[in-house]
Amino acid sequence: MTPPLVIPYGNADWVAILPTITVGVTALVVLIADLGLPRKMRRLSGILIAIAGLALAGVYALAGWHHPFAAFGGAFVNGGFAIVFEEIVVVAAIFSLLMAARLGRDDQAGAGIALMLWSATGAMLMAGAANLLTIFLGLELLSLALYCLCALGSWPSSRESALKYFILSSTATAFMLYGMALLFGATGSVALAAFAGPHASTPLFDLGCGLFLIGLCFKLSLVPFHVWTPDVYQGAPLPVTAFMSVVTKAGVLAVLARFAYAALPAPQAHQILLPLWVVAALSMIVGNVAALAQTDIKRLLAYSGIAQLGYIVAALAGTTAQGLRYAIFYLGAYTFMNLGAFAVVALLSRDRDEGSHLSSFAGLGYRQPVLAGAMTFFLLSLAGLPPTAGFTGKVLILASAVNAGYAWLAGLLILGTAISAYAYFKIVRVMYARTTGTQIQRRFVPASALPWLGVALCAAATLVLGFYPIAPSDVLPLVR
Amino acid sequence: MIAALVVVPIVAGLLLYTLPRSAEAAAKWIGVVVSFGAFAVAVANAGAPDESHFWLQRPFSASFHVGLGGPGYWIVLLLELSSGCALMAARVPRMRDFVAQMLILLGAMTGVFVARDLLLFALFWDLMLLPVFLILVAWPVSKNSTTAWRYLVYNLSGGLALLLATAAYGIAEGSTDVIGKAASLVGPISPVWAFWIFSGIAFAFLVKTPVWPFHTWMPETYADLPAPMAAVVSAVQSKAGLYGFIVVGTQLLPGPMRAAAPLGIALGLIALVYGALAALVQDDAKRVVAYSSLSHLGLVVLGIFSFDPVALGGCIVYIVAHGLFSTGLFVTLGEVETREDTRLLSRLGGIGARNPRLAGALTIVSLAALGLPGLAGFAGEILILTGVYQAGYVWQTIVALVPIVIAAAYMLRVFQTIMQGPEVPDVPQREDLSPLEVLALAPIVLALVLLGVFPGPVAATRVVPVSSLAGGVPVVAVIK
Fold this sequence. Notes:
The complex is a heterodimer of chains A (480) and B (480).
Chain A: E1 5-6, H1 10-16, H2 18-36, H3 39-63, E2 69-71, E3 76-78, H4 80-98, H5 109-128, H6 132-150, H7 156-187, H8 203-219, H9 228-235, H10 238-263, H11 266-292, H12 297-315, H13 321-348, H14 364-367, H15 369-382, H16 389-403, H17 407-432, H18 450-467
Parallel strand pairs in A: 1-2
Antiparallel strand pairs in A: 2-3
Helix pairs in contact in A: 2-3, 2-5, 3-4, 3-5, 4-5, 4-10, 4-13, 5-6, 5-10, 6-7, 6-10, 7-8, 7-9, 9-12, 10-12, 10-13, 11-12, 11-17, 12-13, 12-16, 12-17, 13-15, 13-16, 13-18, 15-17, 15-18, 16-17, 16-18
Chain B: H1 2-16, H2 24-44, E1 51-56, E2 62-66, H3 71-88, H4 95-114, H5 118-127, H6 129-138, H7 146-173, H8 191-208, H9 218-224, H10 227-237, H11 239-252, H12 254-259, H13 261-280, H14 285-305, H15 309-340, H16 356-369, H17 376-390, H18 394-419, H19 435-453, H20 456-459
Antiparallel strand pairs in B: 1-2
């Protein structure tokens, strides 16, 4: 493996983070536009400006595909790996923004959109972060914006959600920071690339890795560090929940994968990472079992997200090149199917009611057949049934786990999937069951037609990815 | 054109939702035309070359490979005939949605039997769950809400086990594009892998067939499904497991399959005897047929695991025969139920006097079901029993004869109670079969007679086409 080229010109550094900067600056543009425009136009113009900025950032990022290099003295490595994660963040942020018609009051909309963009900036920074300082910078940018976003709802549980997220997340950050300090102490460097040396076998290094991984697992809401997730997801406004469920995970997953693949010295990697696979297995089982009992879609998707992240981490088991590609493929599939499901919920939401209770789906198959069909399709994909991206993704993960010698993990994945089917099909059942009793026939008046676009695009992507599983090929050499 | 047999029904089913809800007759005729059109296309394409399209290269190669040939060909014809006849006789509320689901089921099940790739086979295997689940949820015949769940949990567990086994097979073999190839052309798999892979697929197949002890989902599913879908599910979906044993088990995993033969024969015998005894005491006419199905398919399991060429030919004949008379039974019992509003034997009686055509139809299909010589059931039974005896299983053959005698008892009990005896006063007497309903049953009766006197072409089906045999020697030589 050849080390990435270091370009001795200062300006090249800025090219590497140009997409990230674009998103950050777009947030400022949104804020300024918010000041100048009449109140009625603010929300829509904010959303449109933000989407345009994100799309621009996505195009910039793609332009660097075949030119990997390390910027800022190795602090930010640009290349296939970072770009794929940046694109996932960009796409997820765009789909979340499509649901933003109900994000906060009208006079908060601009700020809300700007915060979302800054949060995405943090995640994009994490996608390329190759030393501990950049990782921490990205993580805090991501999290601080999210604390505020969680509190944007006008209902009391929104503030509860923000406070819970703030306190618990800060605790996890403390763990992680301590881990980083120990890693620095053990290796004398903050660069991930410098970890795989002879000094890496000390107990100090192991302890540092452990604390660092605990912090990451908390942010990924893997069992047993998942307890905060359902409450935070339920209380936060819907677009924020949708955003959190993908963007946070993508950013942290990038750090986790880079750490697992590039930073750990090969001999110890298996030993150090074994607890991680156990955590992934626990997530698949516990997440799905807990999802069974939920009657709120946001809580249900929170638990399902815990399990889905378990699947993705399971794909990394054995740290094979194949596994990383399939983890990325499944993350992409998860982005579309999960955000598609959220977009359906967004269409059902009305004033003071986010449409997230199971009862708002009652009889949807007869009132809104297309919407119910789309929801069924996304749920099928989440449950790993054909003909969807979730199915193909699961086959790839199973194959990679079996190939890497982790057949037990594949077996548990199957068990978790079998359990999860009940949770997902519960929603399908509610949508199509003929209930004779008293049923509130809600009128279908979506707050905004924008989520329809999200539903259509996500459904198309979920279908196409199911038949043409595009897993990026030149990702692995660029981790370091 | 082979791919069209799968795609067109599914697309037609989805497009049906664009019709107005009131267009019930139009929907029904579209369903009938698509089913019989598919039948005609399948007949016209007998012996057509396989169609293949690239799907996956890594982690193992897979393709969208479909072909019409081997035992699958006869089952596809059976499926299309059964679906068309059942739809023609269908009388259900909300006809448009019902036909749509029937067509989606038709496409998905055709996919199972034309797939020449194990992964594609697993894809359709999982896909065919959904329409049945939706129908169980949305057309509840009884108030029993657990039926749909039980169907889903059993069959999805099987489907996921099949999926894991497929992924493992792909890793071990490098390719899943293997169905219909001779075992000698497919590379060997180490015994340990083969054992686990076979365990996975055998579980899926045994649940689907079903055999004791995995059968508990079956009687209530058949009882709660509306008659047309019960006809198709019992006629064809239950054959997917047997078909799997023939084309996947005996061909691709002969080692573990032979090792499991004592167990398979024992399970077959248990299903055979237990199903027959249970069918004797049911009060619900559909449950009698459900348990008789358990018994009859136990005979096929016995035949397959005897590994005798004559028995295997008989199995294919009996699979088709059972599909025909089981469609006939469910359709006629559905007619009885729509006329009398009950299917409890204790509340029915003496209908035959005023419904001679209905009585005639039930006579023929029951006689076929109890194995009257000259009808298709007998041809299959005698071939299987001869083959099993030839293979050296003497006392097993003797045990298998007993339930065939019991079959006469329970089938005639159903016929006698419903059609003969004194008229039950509280049951309304309505009109006899309409010409359309006679027309719907005619092809089935015709096929039963035809297959009964001329089973040769079906019995001589080669599991592996001659062209793919190494040196022209069939691995499982089939009766000439």
